[in-house]
Design goal:
Layout lengths: L1 H5 L15 H31 L11 H6 L8 H15 L5 H27 L7 H22 L7 E3 L7 E3 L3 H20 L7 H18 L2 H7 L10 H19 L8 H18 L3 H7 L1 H20 L9 H7 L4 H21 L5
Antiparallel strand pairs: 1-2
Helix pairs in contact: 2-4, 2-10, 4-5, 4-10, 4-11, 5-6, 5-11, 6-7, 6-11, 7-11, 7-13, 8-10, 8-11, 8-15, 11-12, 12-13, 12-15
Length: 362
């Protein structure tokens, strides 16, 4: 909004030229989302606690400590993330940019699915929420629509191509199958973050780290000079996604203020599904789908642990892990929650550095 309001007057008042710069608007989006979170967070948390009458239902088959330490904590805190992210993006981004709207629509839509899931959990006082098939169906429909939208915004030579990291010009022509891949990336990222969200602060920090990486990726991919220098594929318009990523980081920092152990609020599916969907949509827009698997490797690891656990139990009747997802396995082994969370943050940071290396190692 500020971009459209102030840039037209830049010739008359030169200082308004700064609003042309994506870097400044990304920083502004981050600080604005953080401020919104600080201002609205306490009141929102009090409202959620009052209305939920008991907070998020705790799984009876989960770690025993959760029944004592997490009972009564309200959920749906992801609404705070969505509110701060949306308002900040609308304020600082170029609203004529289709990639920004695609990412925003996916984020809000997945947040709505998560809200319905959280609402059912709270109302019916159980941890199941929406039926899995219904949730997956809605996610696929939204992801498919977004994938088609994004491909229409992408240059003709890249629309159905999969870029392979570490190689200069290697593109794999997938044809219509690319849409299926994009759906898989968006839906998979959304559910992977959702599975990771099981301990205080565990999901939000790796999500912010990934958003920081993709802020840089989007800025470079959307800049013809930098894209040519780094020999990555130039996608006009994607640089504006750096502003969206800045807003996501700011909203995440604001939420972490209240989610730090011991958490005053959980993000719930409202937050985790939307965050993962946002990262998936950004990776598809910037043609860095495979890099997301590296940067978000922690989310992948958590998801794989669940798949391995289910397959092993069905085929052999035995469990590979004491409990899945993986963070619960370490809880069952006696690791303290802060130890697990911080070590997983370290892993996420290392994977982010590896993902960033793909920009230059070609």
């Amino acid at each position: 909004m500020l971009y459209h309001l102030l840039v037209p007057f830049a010739e008359a008042f030169t200082p308004f030229n700064v609003f042309r710069y994506i870097t400044l608007r990304s920083g502004g989006a981050l600080l604005t989302a953080l401020l919104i979170s600080f201002l609205i967070g306490p009141k929102l948390i009090d409202t959620l606690r009052t209305r939920q009458n008991g907070g998020q239902p705790i799984r009876s088959d989960g770690p025993e400590s959760h029944l004592l330490t997490k009972r009564g904590t309200p959920t749906m805190g992801g609404f705070l993330i969505l509110l701060a992210l949306t308002v900040s993006t609308l304020l600082w981004a170029d609203l004529g940019n289709g990639f920004v709207w695609a990412a925003l629509v996916v984020t809000i839509s997945y947040g709505a699915i998560g809200f319905l899931d959280d609402y059912r959990k709270v109302v019916h006082r159980n941890s199941r929420g929406l039926p899995g098939r219904a949730k997956l169906f809605l996610q696929v429909i939204i992801a498919g629509s977004a994938a088609l939208w994004i491909t229409q915004l992408t240059p003709a030579g890249l629309q159905d191509q999969l870029a392979v990291p570490f190689f200069k010009n290697l593109l794999i022509n997938l044809g219509f199958a690319y849409i299926l891949l994009a759906i898989t990336v968006i839906v998979g990222a959304s559910n992977a973050v959702n599975l990771t969200d099981g301990l205080d602060g565990l999901a939000i920090v790796p999500a912010m780290i990934a958003a920081g990486v993709f802020a840089l990726v989007a800025y470079l991919v959307g800049n013809a000079v930098f894209a040519n220098y780094l020999q990555i594929h130039y996608v006009p318009g994607t640089g504006e996604l750096a502003v969206f990523c800045g807003a996501l980081i700011g909203a995440g920092l604001g939420f972490l203020w209240f989610n730090a152990p011991p958490a005053r609020v959980f993000m719930g599916d409202t937050g985790s599904l939307s965050l993962g969907g946002a990262l998936g949509a950004i990776s598809v827009s910037t043609k860095h789908e495979l890099v997301l698997a590296i940067v978000g490797g922690l989310f992948v690891l958590e998801t794989v642990s669940v798949i391995v656990q289910v397959v092993s139990f069905k085929l052999t009747g035995r469990r590979v892990f004491r409990m899945a997802p993986l963070h619960h396995h370490f809880e069952k082994k006696g690791w303290k929650e802060p130890t697990i969370v911080i070590r997983f943050w370290i892993i996420a940071a290392i994977l982010a550095l590896i993902g960033l290396s793909t920009l230059k190692l070609r």
